[in-house]
Amino acid sequence: MSVILFVDDDKNILDGLRRRLRSVRSGWELHFAHDAESALAKAAEMEPDVVVSDMRMPGTDGAELLTMMQEKHPHSARIILSGFAEEEAILRTVGPAHQYLAKPCDDQMLVETIENALDLRNLLTNPDLRALVGGIDALASPPITYTNLVKALENPLTSNEQLTAIVASDIALTAEILKLTNSAYFAVSQKITSVSQAIRMIGVDTLKALALFIGLFRSFDGPKPAVTRMMQLCKRSQQLGVVATLIAEQEKLPKEVISVMAAVGMLSHTGSLILYAYRANEMAEVIKRVETEDIPINVAERDQFGAAHPEIGAYLLGLWGFPSAMVQTVAYHHRPQDTRHTEMNALSAIYIAQHLAREVAIESRTGQAPESRIDLEYLERLGKADRLPVWREIAHVVEEKYREMDA
């Protein structure tokens, strides 16, 4: 039985929810609270799976309530349901709220949002990791990203393209800005998956406000090796997105797929960023095994944590309300064979790109091509095994361009 807690100071709204939802989902155990204090008391008794709170309430408001829920019940999915849309209030919910729904919200959207949050528990079954991920408000960014962004925002002549380049080079910025722009507060009918489009939508002022209000682009002050790994990860993820985009273009995938590949490439390692930021010592052991035993990092992570970065990142992105197709792509980018598809898609492009990017990087560094880990039977299933040489050449070109930029 899934436990759902609704919080609103308007009795009529709670009565309406009670009446309508009980007939819609018999498998839900519904609880209702009229203020933050009673909500916290109820949560202490029955540990909710999902908390849905109004924003504007007398005394402790929704943002404050969800902040306390985040501390006391980090495993609970946290959703703001409100018609209160002033910018300052919205930004205060960016950390503690996983998703935002604007009033009036139809029952179908509310039910689907709650169901999606509940379904994520099957993706990440380890309760300790669920609590870790559920308690995260904003991901830490490498110091260089914060510095570059502040300098850019201080310059009135900075273009959208320059801001996009900074944001797109960082996993945390990509995740958080896409999270914010896809919230219901912006009243967008379609999901925003382009970083450039997201920045144009929120504007420079809101970008500045994000930095001021929640320290989104705060420096990571963990162990120096972890900082170095995180910076390398951001670069590799960006490169992965470029390779995947070019492969998608080469295979003439739909424009809507091509347009999201760069963002998916960055977000595919969201889980790695979480592990580096919050489990740095254990990740050091993971990296040691990867380097000494030459095993895939997701295998070493699963041995160490009971789960790997694909499902950890996908769990967070799912909580934040990213499109289900994007969440699935992140979750399965190391094992697309486990999904049911027989044609080339975004997941295929990311899977292929990550392997080829790794192989050509090793070859460029050592002069020897490593043994490929690409599943040829999977490519045969897609009818694309003969395209591997073309894709490998794309990866080589991208690797050379990145090396030129670093020179």
From TrEMBL:
Gene Ontology biological process terms, A to Z: phosphorelay signal transduction system
Organism per entry: Thalassospira tepidiphila MCCC 1A03514
Keyword Transcription set for record: no
Name the UniProt record assigns to this protein: Response regulator
PROSITE patterns: HDOD (PS51833), RESPONSE_REGULATORY (PS50110)
Domain of life: Bacteria
Gene3D superfamilies on file: 3.40.50.2300, Hypothetical protein af1432
Domain Response regulatory: 3-118
Keywords: Phosphoprotein
Stretches assigned to the HDOD domain: 139-336
Residues bearing the modification 4-aspartylphosphate: 54
